[in-house]
Structures are given as C-alpha cells and as structure tokens.
Amino acid sequence: MSIEDNTRIVQNVHPLFNERAFDRILSEMIAEDVEWTNVPTAQIFHGLEGMREFMQGWVDAFPDARTEDTTAYAGEEFG
Which residues span the domain enclosing 34? Predict the structure, then answer.
C-alpha cells in the first residue's frame, strides 16, 4: 500500500466512523483478512464482520461517540 493510500485512509476513516458509514470503511479501507486486537480487553476481531462488530460495539456503548484526529503523520520514516 502506498503512502498516498495510507494518507487517504487516515484522513477519511474517522469522519466515516462519525457518519456511521461502516460499509464504506469496510469496502474501501479494510482488508478482508484484517485481524484487530482490542488491547484493553484482549479481544481479537477477525475479518470484515469482526471489524464491523468492533465498530458497532463502540456505537452501542457510546451512541453519540465521535472521533477526531488532531495530528497525523505520513511517510516512510513513520512506518
């Protein structure tokens, strides 16, 4: 994945989460074989449905939750 692709994801994933546009996040930004670990709970989510479950869990627990990026870094030196 290119730096440009990563930058696009970083700039768009949280606004899409705020819109609850999970289908777009999953179809445009997440690999089908994703494995996401929720470190505080040690719960592991597998695949696109697992990622949807993770995002929906936040919305269920905090219906008015919003995310905001204050700083983002892109480039090979940050990989």
Answer: 3-70
